[in-house]
């Protein structure tokens, strides 16, 4: 549904076959797997441990001397395997799916709308022609009051066709549109014989039947070479991302080196060509016969300002280029860390879900589903927040992409500790009793209690 709402403007009215829409949905669904997998692990772990606790199987295991960590050890192994599979999927399957989805979506966006000639409206999507149909009968083939402007000559509306009626249909291969017109006229302005002639001859032809075939091959979906999209960071695996990051780092460093080399010419100060000792003797009155030519300060200031402006203009352009390359580099680094962080998040959410299931001791899709959605929303919000801060340069790509993990991992350790100690942190009655005991210690509360 999210895919349809997001790209509905690109799909509607194109006459796309069902296979193409199915391919778009299939490739787009691959991007949902890295997000859906952590939620599935969280929900399944809560339901599994909650069902064991609800049927007192977990209590029986603990009464036998088996700790909670040992009970969930096989599940931790499975969660680790799922994390590895998620990493392999993000590294090998997801880039290919993104590449095919991006290339196919580009072709769909470039495709022209499907042929739809409506009555009373000029249709201009066929190159070189403008067609208007005054009326169409219910069979969608018989037409009346037809007007066609032919612009293929490049001289404007010099060829006009009118007809009282006709038939409009497409060939079996859907590659051509056929117009069979009846009882019409053709008006064509002939090119002048002389270059500077101002008079044009017009040729008028009456016809009883006229047939025109329009080529519709330009309306077919044409596929673009997928290699043109391989430079995008979402369509590369770890090896390709590392190669791209090295290239971008070299480009950023070369930008700094070029700016440093360019600035060296503006910081090479030279001594003015006059003798300061002779100038001092003239000032002190010891030698009044000598003349010293002192450079004009106004010219020197103007030269300095001109150099400063040129240097500033160059640094402004160089800074924009370096900033752009740095932003692109951060996107590649974010994608590199994403392949590890999303995979590891499956294991972290399992460490949250398993002790939660052991604590609440409820199975099914009721309370476990609500709790799992609550924690997943927290995880997703923290992930989006960290990624946004990493893209803006507030945090490094490592800190931004592991931001949610750094916060949820201590919570997971706390829940495992509480579950192994038979904690009742989700027992509302315990909290009510605690606050009652706390309030009873207050003098004003004891006075209000009935005797």
Structure description:
With 451 residues, the chain is of the alpha+beta class. Among the domains are: 2-111 and 343-381 and 401-439, no CATH class; 129-219, no CATH class. 57% of the residues lie in helices and 13% in strands. It contains 15 helices and five strands. Strands 1-2-3-4-5 form a five-stranded antiparallel sheet, with no helix packed on it. A hairpin with a 5-residue loop joins strand 3 (159-170) and strand 4 (176-189). Helix 10 (297-360) runs parallel beside helix 13 (403-420) and helix 11 (367-391) packs antiparallel against helix 13. It is flat.
Proportion of residues in β-strands: 5-15%
Instruction: Please write the string of helix (H) and strand (E) elements.
Output: HHHHHHHEEEEEHHHHHHHH
Question: Would you count the extended β strands for me?
Answer: 5
| Poorly predicted runs of 5 or more residues | 270-274
The biggest sheet, with number of strands, parallel, antiparallel or mixed sense and barrel status, is: 5 strands, antiparallel
**Termini separation (Å)?**
63 Å
Break the fold down into its secondary structure elements and pairings.
Elements: H1 2-6, H2 8-11, H3 18-30, H4 33-54, H5 57-63, H6 68-71, H7 73-110, E1 129-136, E2 142-150, E3 159-170, E4 176-189, E5 202-215, H8 238-264, H9 276-283, H10 297-360, H11 367-391, H12 397-401, H13 403-420, H14 428-440, H15 443-448
Antiparallel strand pairs: 1-2, 2-3, 3-4, 4-5
């Amino acid at each position: 549904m999210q895919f349809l709402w997001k790209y509905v403007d690109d799909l509607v009215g194109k006459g796309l076959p069902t296979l193409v829409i199915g391919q778009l949905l299939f490739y787009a669904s691959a991007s949902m797997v890295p997000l859906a997998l952590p939620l599935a692990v969280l929900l399944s772990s809560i339901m599994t441990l909650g069902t064991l606790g609800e049927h007192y199987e977990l209590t029986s295991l603990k009464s036998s001397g088996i700790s909670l960590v040992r009970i969930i050890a096989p599940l931790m192994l499975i969660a680790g395997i799922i994390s590895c599979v998620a990493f392999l999927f993000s590294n090998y399957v997801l880039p290919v799916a993104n590449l095919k989805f991006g290339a196919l979506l580009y072709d769909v966006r470039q495709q022209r709308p499907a042929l739809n000639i409506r009555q009373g409206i000029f249709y201009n999507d066929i190159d070189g022609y403008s067609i208007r149909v005054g009326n169409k009968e219910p069979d969608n083939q018989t037409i009346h009051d037809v007007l066609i402007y032919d612009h293929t000559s490049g001289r404007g509306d010099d060829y006009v066709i009118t007809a009282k009626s006709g038939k409009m249909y497409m060939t079996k291969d859907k590659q051509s549109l056929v117009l069979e017109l009846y009882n019409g006229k053709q008006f064509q302005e002939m090119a002048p014989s002389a270059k500077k002639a101002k008079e044009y001859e017009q040729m008028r032809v009456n016809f009883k039947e006229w047939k025109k075939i329009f080529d519709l091959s330009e309306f077919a979906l044409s596929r673009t070479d997928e290699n043109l999209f391989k430079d995008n960071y979402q369509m590369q695996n770890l090896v390709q991302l590392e190669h791209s990051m090295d290239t971008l780092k070299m480009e950023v460093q070369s930008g700094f080196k070029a700016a440093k080399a360019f600035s060296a010419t503006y910081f090479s100060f030279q001594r003015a060509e006059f003798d300061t000792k002779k100038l001092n003797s003239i000032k002190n009155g010891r030698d009044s016969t000598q003349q010293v030519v002192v450079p004009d300060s106004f010219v020197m200031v103007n030269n300095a300002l001109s150099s400063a402006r040129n240097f500033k203009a160059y640094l402004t352009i160089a800074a924009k280029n370096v900033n752009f390359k740095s932003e692109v580099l951060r996107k590649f680094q974010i994608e590199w860390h994403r392949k590890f962080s999303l995979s590891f998040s499956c294991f972290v959410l399992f460490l949250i879900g398993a002790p939660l299931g052991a604590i609440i001791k409820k199975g099914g899709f009721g309370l476990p589903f609500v709790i799992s959605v609550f924690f997943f929303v927290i995880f997703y919000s923290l992930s989006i927040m960290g990624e946004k801060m990493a893209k803006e340069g507030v945090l490094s790509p490592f800190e931004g992409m592991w931001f949610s993990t750094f916060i949820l991992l201590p919570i997971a350790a706390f829940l495992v500790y509480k579950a192994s100690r038979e904690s009742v942190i989700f027992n509302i009655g315990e909290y009510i009793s605690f606050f009652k005991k706390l309030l009873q210690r207050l003098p004003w509360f004891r006075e209000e209690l009935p005797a």
